[in-house]
Write a structure and sequence with these properties.
Structural class: mainly alpha
Number of helices: 4
Mean pLDDT: 85
Helix content: 55-70%
Radius of gyration: 12 Å
Shape: globular
Distance between the termini: 19 Å
Amino acid sequence: MNYLLDSNIVSYILKKNAIVDNKLREVNIQGGMVFISCITYYEIRYRLLLSTNYQTTLTKSEAVIF
């Protein structure tokens, strides 16, 4: 099964939420794919740019997203 994630779920991924991490691992094991829309990508990017430690966080998040 494939999933399209919204910005809330991507935020949980970036915060390393255990429940969401486990679900992503489960999807990966089952051969599913995970996607985000361009809108979600730019919502997350915008929020990260507003954060105080944005460059480090932005680099880490881009590694997770791509």
